[in-house]
Amino acid sequence: MTTIDHTRLVLDLFAGPGGWSQGLRDLGTHDIGLEIDAAACATRAAAGHLTIRTDVAAYPTAPLTGKVTGLIGSAPCQPYSTAGLGAGHDDMHLCHQALDDLARGTDTRHLLRTACSDDRSLLVAEPLRYALDLLPEWVALEEVPAAQPLFEHTARVLRARGYSTWVGILNAADYGVPQTRRRAVLLASRSRTATPPEPTHAEIAQPESLFGPGRLPWVSMGEAIGCPAGEVVTRGNHTSGGTRFSTTAPSWALTGRARSWTLRVGNRPRSTRRTLDRPAPTLLFGHALNDVSWYDDSGTPTRRLSTTEAAVLQGFPADYPWQGSRTKQFEQIGNAVPPTLATAILTGLHTPATAALEVAA
């Protein structure tokens, strides 16, 4: 047994590489993550985040009873994501059944899982199992927008248990993330009214007024990363010589040519493209059609997005210690909650508490 002391004890289901963890760290709090993927666990360890490597669906809740203040959950989104095969949509009725059964105190997950097209679909019901067993002070869940009906169902169950709840879609760009990533979010609290975080940014800057604070403009890719890494050579009408500019420098120091680059997500003819003066679109990795590359002003591929650039556009520090193969690193980045968004969500939920948690190592 390992005893872990925390000032604010939070259990992070499907913890991934640490998006929620980074968000909590910025609030002076730590979590304990449950995660099964070896590469994600290695990344969390390198980043200093506490982790239990386990299957969330198989981990017992009894040893945690009375010891968890906050519960976070971002179940794997592939079954419901447009980037995946979409099997979760076919399994939606089974997920609703699992939620209903858990609310009645009956665990039918094993039986329902055998009927699912994708055995990951039912993982979206796991946060409710933990919430009903542990009754934490607050809950924060995040998923792709297609899972919103399941969050609304979960919220109805939690309201019947005395929680104030809110369910809706948040755009990460509205909270300072250089990416227009839209995600369904469920917030629940037993001690305060659950409300969405107030946006700090907008597509067009809004000045402060008598009716509320102003909003900064969305953070562009150019602001976040300066520009794609490498060098830009300006030669004018000459074929040799010229001046070299580092494209990793601040955007104000870049040449016009570098600023004309665009980011393209996907290999389809109608794939999304964004210029450097705008936030990135939702970054999708892990599939051949989800290639993410830089293109020059003539539409010619320049190179693929680097892991560091992807991490920064996802809201992580540039030096975050990603582990695993290049493919696994991109997978972790694309699946992670942007830390800046996590901080915004959690600011209005978590409260100081002192506790010790004993967990099976």
**CATH topology type of the largest domain:** Rossmann fold
State the order of secondary-structure elements, H for helix, E for strand.
Answer: EEHEHEEHHHHEHEEEEHEEHEEEEHHHE
CATH architecture of the largest domain: 3-Layer(aba) Sandwich
Give start-end ranges of low-pLDDT stretches: 228-255, 352-358
Instruction: Please give the radius of gyration in angstroms.
Output: 22 Å
Structure classification = alpha/beta
Q: How many domain modules?
A: 2
Arrangement of strands in the largest sheet: 4-3-2-5-6-8-7
Strand portion: 15-25%
Number of helices: 12
Form type = globular
Count of strand segments: 17
What does this structure look like?
A seven-stranded mixed sheet has the order 4-3-2-5-6-8-7, sandwiched between helices. The protein has a four-stranded antiparallel sheet with strand order 14-13-15-16, with no helix packed on it. A two-stranded antiparallel sheet has the order 1-17. The protein contains twelve helices and 17 strands. By secondary structure, it is an alpha/beta fold. β15 and β16 form a beta hairpin. The chain is globular, with a radius of gyration of 22 Å. α1 (about 20-25) crosses α12 and α4 (about 90-105) runs parallel beside α7 (about 150-160). It folds into two domains: about 1-205 and about 335-360, Rossmann fold; about 220-320, no CATH class. The longest helix is centred in the middle third of the chain and has 13 residues, at about 150-160.
